[in-house]
Design brief:
Blueprint lengths: L9 H11 L4 E10 L2 E9 L5 E7 L5 E6 L2
Antiparallel strand pairs: 1-2, 2-3, 3-4
Length: about 70
Amino acid sequence: VPATVTIVAFDQLEATALALHPGSTLLDTDLDEEYGKYLYQVELEDTKGIEWESELDALTGQVLKNHQET
């Protein structure tokens, strides 16, 4: 039986990602598991039309990556 994992709510993580780029539009949010860790990948488009990808730890809400899409 797998252990129960508690992750941070989607909307809370999206709010964290949006706060990195005020005024941005949320494009996509995915929950992934990599190397036994749960990660949220949030794609945003800022007010200048630049797309960003933020990666957050789903268990703590910590921002792990925040980079411009190429």
